[in-house]
Structures are given as structure tokens and as C-alpha cells.
Write a structure and sequence with these properties.
This protein is of the alpha+beta class. The chain folds into two domains: 192 residues, no CATH class; 146 residues, no CATH class. It has 13 helices and seven strands. A four-stranded antiparallel β-sheet has the order 2-3-4-5. Helix 8 packs parallel to helix 11. The longest helix is centred in the first third of the chain and has 29 residues.
Length: 385
């Protein structure tokens, strides 16, 4: 692996890109090590949280962050498959992700159906007798990302069956106000008092990534024909419903001041992957969030923690392609992200660990997830300029 250069000084853009790429590779290696060590005692799971540099393992586990981290490993793997020096490691990451997804499948719980009929089933991902729908969205995101990578017909059929079940289970969780319930009991009753700033973005991004991946990557030649027909009909209904919901949320400036990175992912994905469905309402909504992040960076930057900054970098970089018609907005995004990335690199250790920051040396899988994902996105955009 390449060494990560010193990050103590302000860096020229080209050097910053090199640093970001190296930190991404190192971080992915560290995630692989956490997965290897965690799976020794609980197959399919990471060491979720530990102290740096002692390695002391902290208690607790979070399935939602497990799913998001699995998605980030697959994103990195897809990139590294194109790099001769890292091709073998890309396959290691894919194998890790497959094991991580198999573990998630052991947490599936039956849900009421939206559009599916027997023999297919709707699912939720349940822990402690409750289902966090944001976690379902990120699980769907990871499963759809896996579909975009090499797989045999049996694995594709299994992945599509899971995607259909999770997507169907999510669509039944619409609230009367147009949003989703964010937490439900296993018996289907919602936890009405619980609301997350991020779950709706996670859900919509997962649903759209599944629908787009199905339409782009799969055909009746790569899937069982009967399953293909069911998925084709289901995703068509899903896209129509999701865009209707997304426009409702955009019209009421949903969570703009929270600076929701998952919603930036979702809206930009909607605009760039489904141009026939997108509208100025969505573009203006995305611009409002981007503007708030850029003009109120003190909200996160002053916290001196790696992940709040990384999340804003992710969201801004995800939004970047949606503003090809607004070069001044794209330039504003890159200027803000460069400052973010410089800061993020100061939390990266030579062995690939990424610590929380502030007064904490905790390493947690989602700290690595958000940082390496933003490093990858920054590298990819800089290489298109």
C-alpha cells in the first residue's frame, strides 16, 4: 500500500487528491482487518468500536452502521477492481461484504406486503424487537450495490429477492404526512415518538439505487425470467411513488437546516439517474441544502470531529453532478470540500484507522465508512476535471 503523506500543512489540490486516495485504500484495509477480527467470534460482523491505539474493544453493535459500512466497502471494491495493483484486494472486500450481507439476512423479519404476493415476502431488518427503517434503506443500498458487481445467477436471484422484500417492506411504512415511520415494533406498530433527521434520505436513496441498478444491470437473461418480470413491475410502481414523495418533501424544504447528507445523495441520484422524472422542485431543494452546508460550515467544522465533516463532504460531492449547468455552484462545492478533506485527513492514522477526533481516539466502523466514501468521491470528481 502507498504511504499516506504528511497532512499537517495546507495542500495543493493534486497532492490532496493523492492523499485522499491513499487514505481510502488504507481505511478499506483497516475495515477488512476489523471484519476479519470481528468474524472470528461472530461470523459476518465487524469489531464495531475500539480505542486507538490500544485496540481495546468497546461494547455495543449497530446494524444500521454495519449496513452503511458494507455499502462503502462495495463502493471501494468497485473502484479498486479497475486498479491492477488492488484487484486482488477488491475481491477480498467483496467477499467480506458477502459475509456481512449474509449476517444481515439472519436479522430479516417478515413484514406486511405492499405489492408482493406469495411466494415472495416483505422484510424488515430487526434487532431488539424493533426495526429501524433507515437501516433497512442502507441494507437495500448495500444489496443493490452488490448487484452491480460480478455474481452468478443464483446469487443474483437471491439478491433480487432480498431487494424486493426490503423495498416492499419499506413502502408499506409511509406515514399519513408523506414521510416514513422511522422505527417500528416487530408486530408492525410504529414508534410514533421516534424521528431521525437522516432515515428518510437513507430510505429514498436505497429505494432509488435498487430501482436504477435493476434497470441498468439486470435482464431476463441474467435473472430467472419470472423473478425479472416481478421486479420489473415492482420497481416501476416504486419509482413513481418515490418521486411523488420526494417532491412533497422538497416543497416543504424537508430538513434543509440539518444539512442531511443522505438526502443530498438521494435527491442528486434522483436528478441524475432518473432525468425524465426529476423537476426544478428537486433541483432547487438540493441547491438549498448545498447552500446551507457551504454558508454555515461552522455547524460541523467547529466540532473538531471526523465524521460530521466527512458526511458533509459526502453530501456535497454526491450533489456535484446535479449542477453541471451551474459551474459556479460546482466550484463552491469543491472549494468547501477541499477544506473539509484537509481536515478529515488529520484524523487518519498510518495504519488506516480513522478516529473520532476532538478528545476521543475511538475508532468506529462508520467513522471509516464516511471518510473513505468521501475520499473516493473526491478522487473521482478531481479525475474528471
Amino acid at each position: 500500500m502507498p504511504d499516506i503523506p504528511d497532512t499537517s500543512a495546507s495542500l495543493a489540490p493534486l497532492l490532496l487528491v493523492d492523499q485522499a486516495y491513499a487514505a481510502m485504500v488504507h481505511g478499506a484495509h483497516y475495515l477488512h482487518d476489523l471484519f476479519d477480527r470481528g468474524s472470528e467470534t461472530q461470523p459476518g460482523r465487524f469489531i464495531y468500536s475500539s480505542q486507538y491505539p490500544s485496540g481495546h474493544i468497546n461494547k455495543g453493535y449497530n446494524l444500521l452502521r454495519h449496513s452503511g459500512t458494507t455499502w462503502s466497502m462495495l463502493l471501494v471494491a468497485r473502484e479498486l477492481l479497475n486498479h491492477p495493483d488492488y484487484n486482488d484486494f477488491a475481491h477480498v472486500l467483496i467477499n467480506d461484504a458477502d459475509s456481512a450481507l449474509r449476517w444481515i439476512a439472519t436479522c430479516f423479519y417478515p413484514m406486511p406486503s405492499w405489492k408482493l404476493n406469495q411466494p415472495l415476502h416483505s422484510y424488515g431488518v430487526s434487532t431488539k424487537e424493533r426495526i429501524k427503517t433507515g437501516g433497512n434503506g442502507l441494507t437495500l443500498l448495500a444489496l443493490a450495490e452488490r448487484l452491480a458487481l460480478p455474481a452468478d445467477t443464483a446469487l443474483r436471484d437471491q439478491l433480487v429477492t432480498y431487494c424486493l422484500g426490503l423495498a416492499d417492506g419499506l413502502m408499506i411504512q409511509r406515514r399519513p404526512n408523506g414521510d416514513f415511520w422511522h422505527k417500528i415494533h416487530n408486530d408492525g406498530t410504529p414508534v410514533e415518538e421516534f424521528e431521525s433527521d437522516y432515515y428518510t434520505g437513507e430510505i429514498i436513496f436505497g429505494l432509488l439505487h435498487w430501482a436504477f441498478t435493476f434497470s441498468k444491470e439486470l435482464s431476463d437473461q441474467t435473472l430467472s425470467p419470472a423473478l425479472f418480470e416481478i421486479a420489473q413491475t415492482h420497481t416501476a410502481h416504486l419509482v413513481t411513488e418515490v418521486f411523488s414523495l420526494l417532491e412533497e418533501l422538497a416543497q416543504r424544504s424537508y430538513k434543509v437546516t440539518v444539512q442531511p447528507h443522505w438526502m443530498m445523495y438521494a435527491v442528486s441520484y434522483a436528478i441524475t439517474r432518473f432525468p425524465d422524472h426529476s423537476s426544478n422542485i428537486l433541483r432547487n431543494y438540493l441547491l438549498d441544502i448545498v447552500t446551507h452546508v457551504c454558508e454555515h460550515s461552522e455547524i460541523y467544522f467547529s466540532r473538531d470531529e471526523s465524521t460530521p465533516t466527512a458526511c458533509r463532504s459526502e453530501g456535497l460531492l454526491a450533489a456535484y453532478p446535479a449542477f453541471h449547468h451551474l459551474p459556479a455552484t460546482q466550484e463552491k462545492i469543491l472549494q468547501r470540500v477541499q477544506l473539509n478533506i484537509e481536515k478529515q485527513l488529520t484524523y487518519c492514522k498510518e495504519d488506516g484507522a480513522i478516529v473520532r477526533g476532538g478528545h476521543s481516539n475511538e475508532v468506529r466502523i462508520d467513522y471509516i465508512q464516511h471518510n473513505i466514501t468521501s475520499f473516493l468521491a473526491y478522487w473521482k470528481i478531481q479525475n474528471t476535471l
